[in-house]
Amino acid sequence: QEYAEQNNKNILFLYNRRPLGQKLREETKRINNIKVMAYQTVQDFINRNDEEKINLDSYNYIVCDEAHYIFNDVFNKRTIYIYEELIKRIKEKRATIIFMTATGNELWNTLINEEEILDIDNYYYFEPSYRHIKKLYVQSNNMNDDVKLIDEMLEINTNLNKKDRYKAIIFVEDKKEQFQLIQHFRTKFKDRKVWGVKFSNVASFNDKEANEYAKEFLKDDVLQDFSFDCEVLITTKVLDNGYEFKDARIKIVSTRVFDINSSVQCIGRTRESAYTKSDGLIVFVTNYNNAKIK
């Protein structure tokens, strides 16, 4: 950023989820040569050929945060618009494009082997740390596994002070699963806080609705100080990035998400810095059978 500022270069910083955009805007609000925009906004402008709203040629550097969005975003089928514009700028040397993601295997393979535009010397890899994960279990695709797991945790919590109670996050594949789990826990543990992220407000997902979904979640003040104000949080992939949880009381993360990249992102919502060496997180991932894979 300092180099760009000193050399009168402009930077476009792209994000895919509203909370991430809010964080980036806060971090860059005093930097004049950085523009922060959502991928979705840029896609719409490109689709409408609206150069008054966005002129990509005015940026020397385009930083693509959570770049797996381009290939893996379940809520948006128009990512091809921005992908084609970025590739064109790389091939024509019109801008420097920086892709950043923890789950970019599909993107890297395309850029290196198909587009043949990513020099391996310009590929940087940082080894992820999972030291805060104490145990990893593989569970069946039967939703009763999650029900039994969280039932046991909530029973244990019954004997603990409220401030000491354990927390859990369940990432589910769709709203039907979310609804069933929420109904079960709210029926069995009527006096306890079990949250689902506005599952009843959205009938079908497109990108705009997904952002509104996350917006409503924030408005309910469920998220507070890098945590959430409930014992069990049940959500779809809409929260698979853009959020950071730094609460050592989060003891369980269960992902029923089918896509492996999304599952890795879901697990990555917890932060190692919250846990001590003697403490840790228990992670459950779902093993889908051949019928589901087909």
Describe the structure in your own words.
With 294 residues, the protein is an alpha/beta fold. Helix content is 36%, strand content 17%. The chain contains eleven helices and ten strands. The chain has helices at residues 2-6, 18-28, 39-47, 69-72, 79-91, 105-114, 144-157, 175-188, 207-219, 260-267, 290-293; strands at 11-15, 34-38, 61-64, 96-99, 133-139, 167-171, 194-196, 232-235, 250-255, 281-286. It has a six-stranded parallel beta sheet with strand order 5-10-9-6-8-7, with helices on both faces. Strands 2-1-3-4 form a four-stranded parallel beta sheet, sandwiched between helices. Strand 1, helix 2 (18-28) and strand 2 form a beta-alpha-beta unit. The radius of gyration is 21 Å and the shape is elongated.
